[in-house]
Amino acid sequence: MTRREFRNLSDPAAVEEAIDTFELSTGPESVELSAAQGRVLAERIDAPIDVPGFDRAAMDGYAVRARDTFGATETDPIELSVTGTVHAGEEPAEEIDAGQALQIATGAVLPPGADAVVPVERTTEGETAVDVRTAVTPGDSVMPRGADIASGARAIGPGTLLDPRHIGLLGAVGRERVPVVGQPRVGIVSTGAELVQPGNGLRPEAGEIYDVNTNALAAAIESAGGDPQQFTTTSDDPETMRVSLAEAAEETDLLLTSGSTSAGTADVLYDLIEEHGEVLVHGVALKPGRPLLVGRVFGTPYVGLPGYPVSAMTVFRVFVAPRLRAAVGQPEPAAATVDATIGTRYRYDGGRLRLLPVGLVEDGEGSLVAHTLAKGSGATTTLAEADGVVQMDPERTLLSKGDETTVELFDPDAPLPSLLVVGAADPVAFDLFDTLAAPRHLALGRMDAQRWFTDGIPDLLIATGSSPVDGDVLGRWRREWGLAVRDGTTLDGLADLPDCQFANLDEDVWLRDAFETALTDAGVDGEDIEGYHRELPGLESAARSVASGRADAGLALCRTADSLDVSFVGLGEQDVSLVAAQDRREKDGLVRLEAAIDEFEFDDVVGYTAGDF
Amino acid sequence: MTRREFRNLSDPAAVEEAIDTFELSTGPESVELSAAQGRVLAERIDAPIDVPGFDRAAMDGYAVRARDTFGATETDPIELSVTGTVHAGEEPAEEIDAGQALQIATGAVLPPGADAVVPVERTTEGETAVDVRTAVTPGDSVMPRGADIASGARAIGPGTLLDPRHIGLLGAVGRERVPVVGQPRVGIVSTGAELVQPGNGLRPEAGEIYDVNTNALAAAIESAGGDPQQFTTTSDDPETMRVSLAEAAEETDLLLTSGSTSAGTADVLYDLIEEHGEVLVHGVALKPGRPLLVGRVFGTPYVGLPGYPVSAMTVFRVFVAPRLRAAVGQPEPAAATVDATIGTRYRYDGGRLRLLPVGLVEDGEGSLVAHTLAKGSGATTTLAEADGVVQMDPERTLLSKGDETTVELFDPDAPLPSLLVVGAADPVAFDLFDTLAAPRHLALGRMDAQRWFTDGIPDLLIATGSSPVDGDVLGRWRREWGLAVRDGTTLDGLADLPDCQFANLDEDVWLRDAFETALTDAGVDGEDIEGYHRELPGLESAARSVASGRADAGLALCRTADSLDVSFVGLGEQDVSLVAAQDRREKDGLVRLEAAIDEFEFDDVVGYTAGDF
Questions:
Q1: B276 Cβ partners below 8 Å, 6+ apart?
Q2: What are the beta bridge partners of residue A339?
Q3: Residue B218 to residue B199: CA distance in whole angstroms
Q4: How do residues B235-245 score in pLDDT, each as one tens digit?
Q5: CB A433, CB A439: distance < 8 Å
Q6: What ipTM was estimated for this complex?
Q7: Which CATH number is correct for A337-409, 3.90.70.10, 3.50.50.60, 3.40.30.10, 2.40.340.10?
Q8: A191 Cβ contact list (under 8 Å, min separation 6)
């Protein structure tokens, strides 16, 4: 294994410069009018016809010669003889002569001889005549031929981002197909032998993981106006990768890879790009995103993104998306930044421009609070729980609580979470959340959750046991907990645990404390239990270990054991409280949550009882 | 022809109430992950697996037993024997024992026995051993199994609008398909015998026009999250329409018609809805939009929109789109209003809530100025040139220049025009505009154009002759004008015109004045010319009349005659000036325009010469 380290990191501006040299614009393409929305017009469209193509009645009424109505008033109407009717979409059968009128519908052709329309409201209809109760002048209630747009006139300019209004105008001038700016084909080759496409079986014991970046990048490419093309995920084998790159480069205008750019396994990509193209940038002074590779391969512009999802998406958003939007003429998203106050202290070792992913929540006064995310750029949950990034200059090493900052939003159109919740995982709380508009629950550890709540960041804390914090309790209930037990395992209580393969839960899972108390009460020493230190990360993890036969018994909720269809030995009950931040009580999400709690049928859930509070 | 008039207009709130009774939500549907962007998640997704599914190296380096590194420092490293290598995507071949290390790549499975990774940067590689220059503790540089998200944990809540970040997380937990909120099928039946679909031939003499609303509404439905279904445009014949409605109602969750709702031809729609369903609202106190029909037909919710494009789109936007977005769980567009100052006075007869379409332009200080549009709700150009609407209460009858107001934007993401231009149509000016980012040219008449410019609304005036206004002349050129002449017509100059069928241009076309001056100079009386009063609306209209054989001669630019391949008799030259508003000179669009003028090759355009200024 040779390793290429990044000794000279490029400035982010140098990356922009390198990517600016890419020619990504493709020729215009012709699309059907019904598919033109969201595309950018490639050429000016001049009207090939007059719209309307005839002098057109703008009201229901009577087509007349204006001079015949001269002097007509409400009290002294003028009678005109009605010689017929003209509907929209038909050619007038006759001319109008002096003293005559033709009944006419909105949109119909003004008959020859007529020069105005008297609205029906200003007439009184007789058998074969009409009393006109107002005088009109030539052109009244008529849209003349070409008055909307005249043949040969400029209708829409090139570069227009087509929305329903433009689609309407293009229809009006008879366009069935529209020339639009072509979408650059952007290839994605996610590299790594460990990657498996979603929907296929996974062998975690062999280090396999599902491919995150291919689908996330495809969606991001689409948003930026590109046409994503997914290529088979390749292994790190140089020859396989060379063939993949050559094929993908052939079919695309820009080629992205993700993974294999870090100072890792054999630097396969670097060597391939150098051999079959050129490397313009290798390594950027940016966090996340350092192991970036920019160049050309097999004649196609190339950006090698890091493999970590947050890093890959950050590099794409910062460097690639703006270039793509420029190539297709899409405007930069409006209002892409918001002001916020830092809610969680953050230390940074500096030296590179830091794009720190943060989540956002509205405080009681409607201001935004930004919080960091605990799991780092290797976690996909970091990606989904962040709303944007805070820029920290390379010299800056600290964000303090209360600092004013600007957050670059990932997606200005994405709604912020209706509620920010921390604390215990609880099936009933989650069922309640399902009735609200997308609240966000951060799986923080117990200590962090309480500290964040005390620091005024989340709207809501899900606490177990006696409530350890100040706040308004919106709801409280009891949940039965105990041991999920594998079929065939004889186990009556805690005293039998030392004879089992046990699956424990992490201290950060808010059930562990109840278990510890029970162990103490029962006089059982955890160290005597095989698997006591096998601490699993999620509320359901131990029960799932039991369900899949990896353990004989596991710490679990009755509700979880039931849903997994695993036997259960009850050991006790635990209080769960939903504690609202006092200054957020008016927040719509909390008001709705309280209403949902009031209506919730706790008796319908196995192992749950409603609490008094 | 019977006519049903609107004697009792409903309040807009009553329309909202009626439409709120519609059940538009459809069941969830399953889409591929690659098609899930922009859709709304229908169910909570819990992680079915641990992510990662194994204890995972977070750095390139050496997998070790942390206790073996105790005491290691830069100056006093500890040597461990290297027993092998584990790459990402492979199962570790061996366990780690005391004193041993395994070379490991980021993402690889931590081998049994190891509990930490020493980053490669803190080691010195030997032949079969490694010097570890730092002490690590258990868990260092390792992402434990399930630490990103644990099996059974809540990953994403229902109601989430899926963007690339969520797509990434759904991929991470292995989802190949995603349950999303179904899109209501919204049928569009545009009614009217006069309607022809774009792409087909048009008989304007029979009052035919291209269908504007079907395509515009389809695009608007799509934007609001619905699935547009276009049905054959029907005639006003009751039986044909009944069959169309029955068929469309069968296949859709909401049925829209446009047209035929005004007090017009036979009230066919009203009668059909009443007979085969129910009418909830007929007529609303709103302008535009009065002839609105809300009800049910053949069991399907129904909204009858007015036929005029601006009216139809307004009613859709105000009443239908919010209901559709609610049904699919899409958020209301953010930042949908802006503050602006009224630039053009507007009088209104009141009595109904007025939603006045306005265009917007940024003034020299970056504030927005709103202007009305001249052509009314029957014009599709009104639709394309408006950026939003100003609400006027029924009691309000006047908007004065300088009034502060709020504009509801049609599309918050749509960029405002880079330049607002009024005045003469000119082919070279339009060629210059094609090099800019979608400037907007309003085809105002001469007097209006000058007044608007003096009132400080547009950025630029295209003036002919000697510049009649104050402003900075960005560019000036001369264009040759004269008569486009039909083949076979003998015509040497103005004196021959009385012998021809002549096509004149409207006084609002900025070529007419040059023609009038020339007539006077030549001593020709316009009244002697057959067709002198045939005043056509656009700069090219008369030449096009000649090209299509409808006239023998027509007032035209040399450039136009050339492009239409029609003979031309020159009569003179006309100055064209691009005059910039003095307070807007820093505007990007004007700066770019000036640069484009500098580079423009006037000699390449037939009949043009660059001017001095």
A1: B242, B245, B246, B297, B298
A2: A406
A3: 17
A4: 777 888 899 99
A5: yes
A6: 0.93
A7: 2.40.340.10
A8: A233, A234, A235, A236, A241, A257, A258, A259, A260, A268, A269, A307
Q: Does B326 touch chain A (CB under 8 A)?
A: no
User: Can you read off the two tokens belonging to residue B349?
Assistant: 């007869």
CATH of domain B29-51+148-180: 3.90.105.10
Q: What is the pLDDT of residues B232-272, one digit of tens each?
A: 766 777 888 899 999 999 999 999 998 764 444 447 888 99
Domain assignments of chain A as residue spans, ordered by start: 12-24+184-328, 29-51+148-180, 56-143, 337-409, 417-613
Order of strands across the sheet with B300-305? B227-230, B185-190, B254-258, B300-305, B293-297, B277-282
A258, two tokens: 């993700």
At which residue do the structure tokens 């909720």 appear? A557
A189 CA to chain B: closest CA distance, Å? 15
Phi, psi of A176, rounded to the nearest 5 degrees: -100, -30
Cross-chain residue pair A380–B168, CB shorter than 8 Å: yes
Q: Give A108's contacts in chain B (Cβ within 8 Å).
A: 194, 207
> What phi and psi values does residue A134 have, to the nearest 5 degrees?
-150, 150
Angstrom distance (rounded) from CA B163 to CA B161 = 6
Contact by Cβ (8 Å): B501, B552: yes
Q: Closest residue of A to B36, CA-based?
A: A219
A378 part of contact set with chain B, CB < 8 Å? yes
Q: Which spans in B409-492 are helix H?
A: 427-433, 446-454
Note the pLDDT tens digit of each residue in B5-35.
Answer: 556 899 999 999 999 999 999 999 999 999 9
- The answer to whether A313 contacts B165, with C-beta atoms less than 8 Å apart, is yes
Tell me if residue A120 falls in helix, strand or coil.
helix
CATH code 2.40.50.140 for B56-143: no
Assign a CATH topology to domain A417-613.
D-Maltodextrin-Binding Protein; domain 2 (3.40.190)
**Using H for helix, E for strand and C for coil, what is the string for B292-344?**
CEEEEECCEEEEEECCCHHHHHHHHHHHHHHHHHHHHCCCCCCCCEEEEEECC
Chain A, window 191-210: residues with a beta carbon less than 8 angstroms from a chain B beta carbon:
192-195, 197-199, 202-210
d(CA B271, CA B239) in angstroms, rounded, equals 11
pTM comes to 0.92
**For an interface test with A, which of B165, B211, B305, B416 has the most A Cβ atoms less than 10 Å from its Cβ?**
B165
b or e along A106-139 (b: 16 or more beta carbons within 10 Å of the residue's beta carbon)? bbbbbbebbbbbbbbebbeeeeeebebbbbbeee
Please give the CATH architecture assigned to the domain spanning A12-24+184-328: 3-Layer(aba) Sandwich (3.40)
Q: Shortest CB distance from A164 goes to which of B60, B223, B262?
A: B223
